[in-house]
């Protein structure tokens, strides 16, 4: 029964003292500094075991807490772990110490799109390819209920093959944040890229805001400068609100028409992703809509039987979150938690019955029990444990055990000696057959 490493501010040693040795967490060799901001620094690193290059974003907890950005960080992690697209930077895992959070991400060798634009406007055909990939990524996000809200060349990377990768979802929103009026209301974004409806402070459609930002990016790629720009911020905002900008003489008629639809100050008539995909300028060069196998399709969300209506079935995003790197419980608190997960082919009712049987025999009381979650407290021993059951497939259950309390080591010891041997027979062994299907973990 393999243990799952729990990465929290209390169970992982500080890496600051290890940085001179260029290795930390026993996994990565630290390389050069790629960039830095107010809250974070990004380093190139190498996976010691596989040799894979990664980018590690180091975030100061203290600065995040002082800046009131705790929810932003948690949401960024939650969003990025759900996104699997060839033109979106992948988040591999999240690690943490008492003072820092570390995003281990896909390394994009070519750097920011901004660096290319800063050298001057690009070729229209090159820009078309960039824009096609940008829209493919944005459309994918929108189809998954995610709105970036801070699209700009600094947040778009270019790899060694010249392909775009959208990154930095720190200001992203999800459909759950939409109010009863059907709109988002949080004011955010970069001034020169912000949509006019955000300035109106009456609520906005997250998808329409992203389309506006895509229009700014397309203009900048082809012009080499911003459509709305002024040393005085309020003057610039007035230009954005009124949609006052001029096209350079080298813009083709087709490009002008597309940019005009993208930078339409009326969000109701602004072009949509679907309309962009059918635009004549956009389709030049033999554009084919990107298709790929989405992780979400790898698992079927099966319906529970009548006797288990409240049982939770997992989708692919939940499976991804089983990686220890995606456990957010210890990022910003000092609560000591250690745990493990394993599979069982037994019914959830049978597993719960066995747990209660062992607890009764060991004089360990059931503190609470609901919807296939059970919490147990030891009366004469130091045990505090929470067990949660989740349906992986129709025939396999994931049992997640978390031992906690002020003395996790003692609690873990009681669990290991009293419970683990008793339930070992319930653990599913990889390679065995479950209803005719051979499954490995």
From TrEMBL:
Keywords: ATP-binding, Kinase, Manganese, Nucleotide-binding, Serine/threonine-protein kinase, Transferase. The keyword Nucleotide-binding applies. Residues 28-282 form the Protein kinase domain. Its EC number is 2.7.11.1. GO terms for biological process: signal transduction. This is non-specific serine/threonine protein kinase. GO terms for molecular function: ATP binding; protein serine/threonine kinase activity. CDD domains: CIPK_C (cd12195). It comes from the Eukaryota. Pfam families: NAF, Pkinase. ATP binds at residue 57. It catalyses: L-threonyl-[protein] + ATP = O-phospho-L-threonyl-[protein] + ADP + H(+); L-seryl-[protein] + ATP = O-phospho-L-seryl-[protein] + ADP + H(+). The keyword Manganese applies. Residues 309-333 form the NAF domain. PROSITE patterns: NAF, PROTEIN_KINASE_ATP, PROTEIN_KINASE_DOM, PROTEIN_KINASE_ST. InterPro entries: Kinase-like_dom_sf, NAF/FISL_domain, NAF_dom, Prot_kinase_dom, Protein_kinase_ATP_BS, Ser/Thr_kinase_AS. Belongs to the protein kinase superfamily. CAMK Ser/Thr protein kinase family. SNF1 subfamily.
